[in-house]
Automatic annotation (TrEMBL):
GO molecular function, one term: sequence-specific DNA binding
Domain of life from the UniProt record: Eukaryota
Signal peptide coordinates: none
Organism lineage: Eukaryota, Metazoa, Ecdysozoa, Arthropoda, Hexapoda
Record protein name field: PiggyBac transposable element-derived protein domain-containing protein
Coiled coil: none
Species of provenance: Parnassius mnemosyne (clouded apollo)
């Protein structure tokens, strides 16, 4: 949900959400929260492709996302995870025909009359009990597992084995106990939640600039999403800064790149002109440049500049001294 409180036909109200009023986006993300695809929901005016109407609104969203993934690289075997708003047995069959793996929770009335016990009866069994059925030819599995409540998961690729052991607190015994958990449930819990994680990270440092145009909040949200994705790539490559520090460094770099100095005279470069990139240790190379100008450190004329900072420095000692932060 993108917060918006003005007037627009696409504005939605969803009770119980942290953001109740605003634009609704369908989002596809990785397990760690990297946003791959998003599409604004347009309410009743949303159009569903003719071939996807039989799968309903939720199923059509999954198939559109699948089209995007396979359009980027048809050779990869993707595994999609989604909740019970989207899933149905016909959808899993369709994804199997496309060569895509899929796993998701499913509502009891969408199991296509799978011959399993009803949730009302199954919740009276022991905690950790499970039952399952599979169909041919696409081997779609439907599994019910009794935890705090009955959980139903459907998949076209996972199985119930090997069983996992999970720890739960028993109110009857007043201690923690270990119960069985099917593998399909474990895989779903392990890989689900990427969209929630991205939404949480974006919401922590959301751009709080208010505009009068209806599209301004969407623009700011898209910008926040791009910064979040950049931080995800930075962490994947071994970056050490947290999200807030990364955003601060990025903002400093942008301000530095487009800063206009108000200093008058032959040397308009201010003292803080390169405060962000000066010590980052990236692409600071020595380059010959004529005519010679005064070195930034020793004030003696030099023919050499830092290729990134565009400042004259002597390559022997002044270059290192200028790019080293003193404690």
């Amino acid at each position: 949900m993108v917060p918006y409180y003005g007037r627009h036909s696409c504005k939605q109200f969803i009770r119980g959400k942290p953001i109740r009023w605003g634009y609704k986006l369908w989002v596809g993300a990785t397990r760690l929260g990297y946003v791959i695809w998003f599409d604004p929901y347009q309410g009743k005016s949303s159009t569903i492709a003719e071939g996807y109407k039989q799968f309903g609104l939720g199923g059509s969203v999954i198939l559109e996302f699948a089209d995007v993934l396979q359009g980027r690289d048809p050779t990869l075997s993707f595994h999609l995870f989604f909740d019970n708003y989207f899933s149905s047995i016909p959808l899993l069959h369709e994804l199997s025909n496309r060569g895509l793996r899929a796993t998701g929770t499913i509502r009891e009335n969408r199991t296509s009359k799978c011959p399993l016990e009803s949730n009302k009866d199954f919740k009276n069994t022991d905690r950790g009990s499970f039952v399952f059925k599979s169909s041919l030819p696409t081997n779609v599995l439907v599994c019910k597992w009794n935890d705090n409540r009955v959980v139903t998961v459907a998949s076209n690729t996972e199985t119930v084995e090997p069983l996992q052991k999970v720890k739960r607190f028993s109110q009857e015994l007043k201690r923690f106990v270990h119960i069985d958990q099917p593998s399909v449930i474990s895989k779903y819990n392990e890989n689900m939640g990427g969209v929630d994680r991205s939404d949480q990270n974006i919401g922590l440092y959301r751009t709080s600039i208010r505009g009068k145009k209806w599209y301004f909040s969407l623009f700011c949200h898209t910008l926040d999403m791009a910064v979040h994705n950049a931080w995800q790539l930075y962490k994947r490559d071994g970056g050490e800064h947290d999200h807030l520090t990364f955003r601060r460094l990025l903002a400093k770099g942008l301000l530095e790149s487009y800063k206009k100095s108000d200093k008058r005279g032959p040397c308009p470069t201010g003292r803080s002109h390169l405060e962000s990139s000066r010590y980052d240790g990236v692409d600071h190379l020595v380059q010959y440049s004529a005519p010679q100008l005064r070195c930034k450190v020793c004030k003696v004329k030099s023919f050499f500049i830092c290729q990134k900072c565009k400042i004259h420095l002597h390559p022997k000692n002044c270059f290192l001294e200028y790019h080293t932060k003193t404690q």
